[in-house]
Specification:
The chain is mainly alpha-helical. The chain is 74% helix and 0% strand. It contains seven helices and no strands.
Length: 186
């Protein structure tokens, strides 16, 4: 007996087409030199530069007790990195600039594949952990996190769905780590 052929789900094809259309739309901003440079800088800071600097600075600003906050952020980041690398290897989704000639890539990608957005995953996870301990950082980290997420499709490196998945995974990783810390301390 022959295996039944799987037919592609037309709604999935429509979602992929919408994802690419939204990516192209957001990527138009990258055509403006100053906008592209601004988001390239945000992306570079979101590579880890800002977060690692913040982790090192927190104990200086808030005292030695903030060392635990920095350690919590670092452990959460490592967990997020493991999940990110595992998913990238499993999904192997090509980046938007590789699929569509109309998408301009302003900065080189850190790796070959698109899904999920690691920048967004880590920005969301770090922000949630930091805000759990030090909510006064809200007005600094939330706007930065939103800019990091926006930078990914604007720079042509990710589809909007990659960014949404990264945000969801980052939220999950941060939530689990906060629950674990509360359980240990609590």
């Amino acid at each position: 007996m022959a295996e039944p052929m799987l037919t592609p789900d037309p709604s999935f094809a429509r979602m992929r087409a919408l994802d690419l259309t939204l990516c192209r739309f957001l990527n138009r901003a990258n055509r403006r030199e100053q906008v592209g440079r601004f988001f390239a800088l945000i992306s570079r800071l979101g590579d880890g530069v800002l977060w690692y600097t913040l982790m090192l600075t927190l104990p200086l600003v808030h005292g030695i007790g903030a060392l635990l906050v920095s350690m919590h952020m670092a452990i959460t980041g490592l967990l997020g990195l493991a999940i990110y690398k595992w998913l990238k290897a499993r999904t192997s989704r090509p980046r938007p600039f590789m699929v569509s000639e109309g998408i301009i890539r302003r900065v080189p990608p850190l790796d070959e594949y698109s899904f999920p957005s690691g920048h967004t995953l880590h920005a969301v996870a770090f922000s949630l952990v930091l805000l759990h301990h030090l909510p006064q950082w809200f007005w600094w980290v939330v706007p930065f996190t939103l800019l990091v997420a926006a930078s990914r499709p604007i720079l042509g490196l990710h589809y909007p769905s990659d960014v949404l998945a990264g945000a969801a995974i980052g939220t999950g990783v941060a939530s689990l780590s906060i629950l674990a810390v509360n359980w240990v301390i609590g």
